[in-house]
Specification:
This protein has 88 residues and is mostly helical. It has four helices and two strands. It is globular.
């Protein structure tokens, strides 16, 4: 966990590397059809499994499905076209 005393003010592009909920560095993130990649897999799974909240933490879109990945260039559309059949 990031110590608040050690946080430095950063521009918006730097915050893409940190979870918007716990502010830990994102190694793996959860992504749904809205393509937001700002929530780490731990926070996303905690929201979904413990709190029964299936909404995106950024835009509040209800997400029936998510994927967990570390590929920042992957979009939901690309996943749907290229990988879904292999994953099922």
């Amino acid at each position: 966990m990031v110590d608040a005393r050690n946080r430095v003010q950063s521009d918006v592009s730097d915050t893409d590397n940190y979870c918007v909920l716990c502010y830990n560095v994102i190694e793996f993130f959860a992504m749904g059809s809205c393509d937001h990649k700002n929530t780490c897999q731990k926070c996303s799974l905690r929201l979904r499994l413990i709190l029964d909240d299936n909404k995106c933490s950024i835009c509040k879109t209800e997400l029936d499905e998510i994927i967990v990945t570390n590929n920042k260039s992957l979009s939901w559309t690309e996943f749907d076209k290229k990988f879904r059949k292999k994953a099922i």
